[in-house]
Specification:
2 strands; 11 helices; RNA_pol_sigma70_r4_t2; Arc Repressor Mutant, subunit A; sigma factor activity; two-stranded antiparallel sheet; transcription regulation; mainly alpha; WH-like_DNA-bd_sf; sigma factor
Length: 212
């Protein structure tokens, strides 16, 4: 009877796993597999939105999940907090933060002319802890443009006029679906500054699309 009840339990998501010593808990390899399935598409979209290169984006995401494997194994092997369940509750921002760090490292190895620097704290007057980080132009690639209709091209062109910080915050919020708190954890901004950059981005897009 016990085995039957365990088999009938709904599958767990990486964000809400059981603790590693709970009956019926997913094995570590299953937990990691679920994490990849749940998050890889959003991470790939995020990395490609910055790097504008499919192969490099795949490398960045692969290395992100390799770090996740290492981190999860450390947690399971250590009797002290956090448990795998506690870590799973903040898995999304952790993954995006690791991916962002890897993307930044890859950018720094590219030709300097391809970069647009993010604003420093003195430039923006905010708590940006990633001063001096560079973000490649996120305007659409030729292949992207070819598959767009006229309205989509207008939106893509408008997004290309945003500052690097505005584009990143907009992507994390709209495309990746992160909360203000999660975006703050990923980028090093405060939640208030996340809201500021998002508000500025939306207003700028409205004005550009309206032809103001």
């Amino acid at each position: 009877m016990a085995e039957s009840s365990l088999e009938s339990e709904p599958p767990l998501t990486p964000d809400r796993p059981l603790t590693s010593d709970s009956p019926g808990d997913l094995r570590l390899d299953e937990w990691l597999s679920d994490a990849v399935q749940c998050h890889q598409s959003r991470l790939l979209a995020y990395a490609r939105g910055i790097l504008r290169d499919r192969s490099s984006s795949q490398d960045a995401v692969q290395e992100t999940f390799l770090q996740l494997c290492h981190k999860a194994r450390q947690i399971v092997a250590t009797p002290e907090p956090p448990t795998l369940a506690e870590f799973g509750q903040r898995l999304t921002p952790w993954l995006f933060k690791v991916c962002r760090t890897r993307v930044i490292d890859m950018q720094r190895k590219r030709t300097p002319q391809a970069f647009t620097s993010l604003p420093t704290r003195s430039d923006r007057g905010d708590d940006d802890v990633s001063a001096g980080v560079t973000v490649v132009d996120t305007s659409p690639t030729p292949d992207d443009v070819a598959s767009m209709d006229e309205e989509q091209r207008r939106v893509a062109d408008s997004i290309g006029t945003l500052t690097p910080r505005q584009r990143e915050v907009l992507q994390l919020r709209i495309q990746s679906g992160l909360s203000y708190r999660e975006i703050a954890e990923v980028t090093g901004l405060t939640p208030t500054n996340v809201g500021f950059h998002l508000h500025q981005a939306v207003n700028s897009l409205r004005q550009t699309l309206a032809g103001v």
